[in-house]
């Protein structure tokens, strides 16, 4: 189980870092094995910052992150390496995760060198073949190729396969399908569904509410760095109680409606106030359904 407890993040911004921007405010979430938790919200609401803190790519300003009860924030190199055996990330642009001058499968060799130096090459190749088949890739079609010879979907699956070589518990998936075409998207989404069935916990960061609805059991809606609504995806999406959630859901284009049919005016929202004060607390309005400031 991965838990974020009252996590805050402020970045230094402005000339010479003279100001601070609070990007994440008092966020507490958890991801259990075998479930997908979606984090949704408008651009700039703090979603990626949460993923980066979980992946220790940026520090936590206040609060803590725990894996199976142990605090993993601010620990040394060895502890961080051990953490990465359990928690890995895959990001939006698969091409940027590869060095174009090397063959794409070099990412697997890097895992062996770093984590399993004692494993012989032949055994390692067999493991790589296994995980590739596990993400529904034909090893013969992808091994030995350069990144530009593979599709975005293949590259994204290879990154997921790399994470699986480490026997991870939690995968942070940050907009991993937004750059893929519709048919590849559904393949990668279904793959996440299969991994979930096998016990992986997935933190699924997206601005696409339909994807969140498709893949996740629970959802967290963020605005201005804070959680405004959270709970079982079915409840939050069918009965949104926060005006921001209602606006967000109303803004999803519907297949059966034209833009010109849209008549609803967005609801008025509180302006972005002082981000350094704690956000309104979440209240349980129904079983597995929490809303801020009610
Ligand atoms: N390294 C950084 N330094 C300073 N400010 C940052 C940094 N990274 C993010 N921010 C700011 O923090 C806020 C939250 O950004 P974040 O990327 O977490 O949002 P997001 O919800 O993931 O947005 P998007 O959907 O556009 O990716 C934004 O105001 C952003 O400008």
TrEMBL record:
Residues 260-294 are annotated as: Disordered. Residues 2-249 form the ABC transporter domain. The keyword Transport applies. SUPFAM superfamilies: P-loop containing nucleoside triphosphate hydrolases. GO terms for molecular function: ATP binding; ATP hydrolysis activity. It holds the Pfam family oligo_HPY. The keyword Transmembrane does not apply. Residues 262-271 have a biased composition (Acidic residues). Residues 285-294 have a biased composition (Basic and acidic residues). InterPro entries: AAA+_ATPase, ABC_transporter-like_ATP-bd, ABC_transporter-like_CS, Oligopep_ABC_C, P-loop_NTPase. GO terms for biological process: peptide transport. Keywords: ATP-binding, Nucleotide-binding, Transport. PANTHER family: ABC-TYPE DIPEPTIDE/OLIGOPEPTIDE TRANSPORT SYSTEM, ATPASE COMPONENT, ABC-TYPE DIPEPTIDE_OLIGOPEPTIDE TRANSPORT SYSTEM, ATPASE COMPONENT. This is ABC transporter ATP-binding protein. It comes from Glycomyces terrestris.
């Amino acid at each position: 189980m991965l838990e974020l407890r009252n996590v805050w993040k402020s970045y230094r911004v402005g000339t010479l870092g003279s100001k601070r921007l609070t990007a994440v405010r008092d966020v507490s979430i958890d991801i259990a094995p075998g479930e997908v938790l979606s984090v949704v919200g408008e651009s700039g609401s703090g979603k990626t910052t949460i993923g980066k803190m979980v992946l220790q790519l940026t520090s936590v300003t206040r609060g803590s992150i725990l894996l199976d009860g142990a605090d993993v924030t601010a620990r040394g190199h060895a502890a961080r390496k051990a953490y990465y055996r359990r928690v890995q990330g895959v990001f939006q642009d698969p091409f940027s995760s590869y060095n174009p001058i090397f063959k794409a499968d070099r990412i697997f060799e890097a895992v062996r060198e770093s984590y399993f130096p004692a494993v012989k090459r032949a055994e390692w190749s067999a493991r790589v073949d296994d995980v590739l088949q596990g993400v529904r890739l034909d090893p013969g079609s992808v091994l030995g190729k350069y990144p530009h010879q593979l599709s975005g979907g293949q590259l994204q699956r290879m990154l997921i396969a790399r994470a699986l070589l480490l026997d991870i518990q939690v995968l942070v998936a940050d907009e991993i399908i937004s750059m893929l075409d519709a048919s590849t998207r559904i393949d990668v989404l279904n793959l996440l569904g299969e991994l979930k069935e096998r016990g992986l916990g997935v933190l699924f960061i997206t601005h696409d509410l339909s994807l969140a609805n498709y893949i996740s059991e629970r959802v967290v809606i963020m605005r201005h760095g804070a959680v405004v609504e959270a709970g079982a995806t079915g409840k939050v999406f069918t009965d949104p109680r926060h005006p921001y959630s209602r606006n967000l859901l109303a803004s999803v284009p519907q297949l059966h409606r034209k833009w010109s049919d849209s008549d609803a005016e967005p609801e008025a929202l509180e302006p972005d106030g002082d981000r350094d004060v704690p956000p309104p607390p979440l209240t349980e309005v129904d079983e597995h359904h929490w809303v801020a400031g009610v």
